[in-house]
What does this fold into?
Amino acid sequence: MASSKETKIIDKTIRDIHKNLVKYTKGTLRENNLTMPRFLVLWYITKYQPVNMSFLHDKMHMANSTLTVIVDKLVDDELVKRYRNPKDRRIVLLELTEKGDKKLCKMLDIRQNFLEKALVNLNDNDKEKLIMLLGTVLGNLEELLKEGENNNE
It folds into this structure.
């Protein structure tokens, strides 16, 4: 089935928005001694903490060795703390330190302020519609992925 013209435009627009946000984010991360993979590790840890390396590996789809280097750097920079699970000493858990939380919040604030500037021409009603429409698309995508996972079982 061929995609409609509208679908192609929406796809390109979403990709271009993402590309511009990533480009801006990479620049601000560099200025704050972070990389995009380190930023993403911080984000996943704060969203789901405490986490183990297997969890991060599943979320980020990176080689274990690459992920270990990233986490080691974050630990060295005192942005992440690594400790043994008190219930099972074989499991190593990761959490953000206070410094890591502040750094992540700062980076998210910078990124969101940049996006806010891009939304300046939208009134509150337009922003609410955009939130609702994007939420609907996201929900549909998540449902399609869930159905796909169920069909693969």
Observations:
- The first helix runs from residue 5 to 31.
